[in-house]
Amino acid sequence: MIRTRFAPSPTGYLHIGGVRTALFNWLFARRYGGQFLLRIDDTDVGRNQPEALQPILDGFRWLGIDWDEGPEVGGPYGPYYQSERLDRYQAAVKTLLEKGLAYYDYATVEEMKAEREAAERAKRPFLYSRRWMAETPADRARWESEGRKGVVRLKMPREGVCRFYDHIRGDMAVEWTHEADHVIQRADGSCLYNLANVVDDHDMRITHVIRAEEHLSNTPRQIFIAQGLGYELPEYAHVPFVAEPGSKNKLSKRKLAQYLKNPDFRQVYEHGKAIAAVLGLPASAETFNPVIVDFYRQVGYLPDALVNYLLLLGWSLDDKTEFFTRAEMIRHFSLERINKSAASFDAKKLRAFQERYMALEPVERKTELVLPFLQKAKLIPRPAPAEVVQRVMAIVRAAGERIKVAGDILDYDAFFVPTERLNYDDKAFTQHIRKPAANALLRKIRQRLETAAFEAKALELLIQEFAQTEGVKLNDINQPLRVAVTGKAIGFSTYETLALLGREHCLERIDRVLAQTEGL
RNA sequence: GGCCCCGUCGUCUAAUGGUUAGGACACGGCCCUUUCAAGGCCGCAACAGGGGUUCGAAUCCCCUCGGGGUCACCA
Predict the structure, then answer these.
(1) Among residues A107, A113, A191, which one has the least CA distance to residue A150?
(2) What is the dihedral of CA A199, A202, A208, A211, to 10 degrees?
(3) Whole-model pTM?
(4) Strand B contacts in A 23-82 (CB under 7 A)
(5) N or C: which end of chain A has fewer CB within 10 A?
(6) Active site residues of A
(7) Which of residues 455-484 of A touch strand B (CB under 7 A)?
(8) Which tens digits make up the pLDDT trace of A50-63?
(9) ipTM of the complex
(10) In Å, how far are A102, A198, A437, A482 from A469, measured between CA atoms?
(11) Residue A74: how many CB atoms within 10 A of its CB?
(12) How far apart are CA A149 and CA A378, in angstroms?
């Protein structure tokens, strides 16, 4: 039975890079009918609060990445919070101590630092002198009586080579002497990541450790611990991290300002921000950031689009397949086809996937996706009455592929606000309405609309005929009309717009702009 | 700096000794068109460099250069 895991720290948000690693773990487990679990890496602090975990769990659920064991679902190998597993770690430390694979050490932080710096000055690799390694209980007692605090360090081999196989990197070999005597237990008895991780992976029967490349250099010391504890080693696969737009640095949520210099990244961000502004969502970099998964949920992306994009960020099936259903991803996923080098995050390409996915959704589904956005913007009531849903569906149908993310429905607010609250885009107004010719044409077409049938096809014929008799281009009448009734120079078909709005609203709005441009 | 990893169009990638180095996103042009999208067609654009091995190298070997990760009582 294949078992993989993802071990997030409860930081309050789900990072794009983390999610991709989790996705690879999930796919690999599902591919072989195995299990995927979530374990919470909260060894570090007491400040871990449930509210910092919730967004992460919500994010996974939204993406459809489910876990067989872990928070909220339990499982036979719990607890799944490292903060609740201290006894296991301490037992492991005891074993390592007994086997002579670890030792109590009484060096102060300053003393260690001094040794490190001395080595640096001498331009030789740092290797701890083990000056304060307690070899006997008497040593411990003596140093403790001096007021020193003892930590437990790994007693790493100082000769030989650590060899292991990595499913992505191939055969690895690292000299043991390059591994420092890392601390595994603090003076207060709490334990550190490298130890906890190994113990948990073993206790939870993890067979394949698929994690970010930055952990590659932790692997020898973890192997040392695992072997010391008599564990069977898991298989390893170190996936390259997700890099910044246009660079090879690791993607970080703290560098939003820098990424915004990238035009593609900026465009995606600004688009989302405009939607957030209408919804009144807070837009701090902490929560509203294209590096964070929740950004896409808030703006109305489809989880399948995000997952598909992430899948292809560092993995590919062949030279042509771009679109994968979940079932297809699961069927085809393999560690061997993960790339070795870091892949830059390209928000624009993610958006392209989103557009393709959205275009595939039937109108009914798009309508469902869009309703909550209209409700959050207080443009329609919650719950929405049937006739409102029908109306929204008609608008969604008319908008077609212009709705690229669910939040784009907010571009069509003109259909939901009363005439007096309709906002006119300044530029559109100046260009298409505030002109004597436009005023005259609007006045004339208004008359025709009074008696016209408000149906798209009929309106199209009417306006075409009107333009011809007036001797003007279709554009000369369509644009003023569109701006008059929607406030914007862009949108779907003018004829459909008028029809959907209805005679009453259209006349009202035309009257409003006529009044404003009187006497030009 | 030590150790480790990586290096094909701007970006994501295909190619596993023999291809005019393919596709996608982005970008540019044209067409379509009542605006805006969408769509159609065309185009721009890469094997980091140098040595080998070989009849033949993006692919194998070596060196150089470049980029990144890691060197915590963080995870």
Answers:
(1) A107
(2) -10
(3) 0.95
(4) 41-44, 82
(5) N
(6) 253
(7) 460, 474-475, 478-479, 482
(8) 788 999 999 999 99
(9) 0.95
(10) 95, 82, 15, 20
(11) 11
(12) 61
